[in-house]
């Protein structure tokens, strides 16, 4: 079974809005019914839809702000890892 991340699902649904579900599914190599399920989830869950990779949907107890902050924390952690990698690269280069 293929697993897709949140960004892929969101872009796939946007593309299906623009060119239609069948064409989008063909272009992306995704089953038509899978894309339709993603569209249905977007309708039901709004911004909480398309969590990706088999993770559970956010609980109803979380506010939209909490979800947004968790997303931002994830982005900042990824950016921090990139900066750490870049720092290591430049330190190695400087030692030469």
TrEMBL record:
* One Gene Ontology MF term: DNA binding
An example Gene Ontology biological process:
DNA transposition
Q: Report any Pfam family annotated for this entry.
A: HTH_Tnp_1
Protein name, UniProt field: Transposase IS3/IS911 family protein
